[in-house]
Amino acid sequence: MYNQAISASADTFEAQNATVRFTATPEGTALAYGSLLFMALLPIFFGALRSVRCSKSKKGGEMPETITSRDAARFPIIASCTLFGLYLFFKLFSQEYINLLLSLYFFVLESLLSRLDPDVERLRHHLTNSNNVVFAEILNYEFDTKSLICLVLSSVVGVWYLLKKHWIANNLFGLAFALNGVELLHLNNVSTGCILLGGLFVYDVFWVFGTNVMVTVAKSFEAPIKLVFPQDLLEKGLGASNFAMLGLGDIVIPGIFIALLLRFDVSLKKNTRTYFYSSFVAYIFGLVLTIFIMHTFKHAQPALLYLVPACVGFPVLVALLKGEVTEMFR
Questions:
Q1: Would you say 12 and 214 are in contact if contact means Cβ atoms under 8 Å apart?
Q2: Rounded to an integer, what distance in angstroms lies between the CA atom of residue 287 and that of residue 307?
Q3: What residues contact residue 322 under an 8 Å CB cut-off, 6+ apart?
Q4: How far is CA 245 from CA 98, 204, 229, 251, 303, in A?
Q5: Element of type H or E holding 48
Q6: Could you give the CA distance from residue 234 to residue 277 in angstroms, rounded to a whole number?
Q7: Distance of CA 303 to the CA centre of its chain
């Protein structure tokens, strides 16, 4: 799920304007960008903390998905193919029907597939030994009170999003996807992280500055794969429609690298979080710089152009000062 979401995400900061040109007030602009920054930091911070617990967990349902160097090298190519494919679909077919299918995928098919996935081995066993109990096993789920409450709440928000496409519902799902992505997608080492971030650095710069593909997909794609916040909230309230946006890829991709550095801090057993905090501050610096450049030049910016050098450069500089470069890249 996260790979599709990240690949298709609008990895740009862009003001999404309505057909009538709207000039945001300084207060509205500051509120929108400040809110996006705050929302971006939440899943990174808490997702990184949860990734440490997840890496120590022995439960099968909580085991993370490890990204290898081969996966990292392939990812920008897969992301490019997915992005361009979406661009062609939006050019050839009705945007309304495409977004309807995408919404159904995110909220129906993905939920079913993820729920059946833990039972694949058990299903294979019963298919080869006893067909009589297959369906009983598939339907044999146990829910506690917490799970049922979460199921009801997520269903309500899902229906709200499907019917209204409201930006608050979009952000609730976007934050949940980003949090789970940072928690469950684990880089196996810092070198793999550098390969992934370097490849997506080139990917982001090319598709934003070299073509109009990224911005077109960002504005056309109606699915919770980006965080949005209205710049006209102060004027129009919750019915505001002029949005600034940040793709989930600009959160999850740097986020899984920051989470890796937190696990590296833990592995050093020095009771410090130097690399985590340095990379976290670097992310804030990179995102603020992205906002500043975009606001100054009034043009969509590839956020990874600023985030990647910051998130990689700051921790490496710290490692050089502490003489721990070898340990970091080991």
A1: yes
A2: 6
A3: 274
A4: 20, 15, 7, 12, 11
A5: helix 26-56
A6: 34
A7: 13
Q: Residues near 308 by Cβ (< 8 Å), separated by ≥ 6?
A: 197, 198, 200, 201, 254, 286
For residues 139 and 216, give the distance between their C-alpha atoms in angstroms, rounded to a whole number.
Answer: 42
For 104-127, how does the pLDDT look when each residue is reduced to its tens digit (9 = 90+)? 666 654 454 444 444 444 444 444
The token pair that represents 327 in the structure block: 């340990």
Q: Which of 11, 204, 232, 265 is catalytic?
A: 204
Beta partners for 237?
none
Mark whether 119 is an active-site residue.
no
The pLDDT tens digits for 117-171 are 444 444 444 444 444 444 444 445 556 677 788 778 878 887 888 788 889 988 9
Strands 185-187 and 65-67: parallel
pTM over 0.70: yes
258: CB partners within 8 A, 6+ apart: 44, 48, 182, 276, 279, 280, 283, 311
Alpha carbons 258 and 182: distance in angstroms, whole number: 9
Cβ count within 10 A of residue 48: 24
State how far Cα 301 lies from the chain centre: 17
| Residue 204 annotated as catalytic | yes
Catalytic residue from among 11, 71, 232, 250 = 250
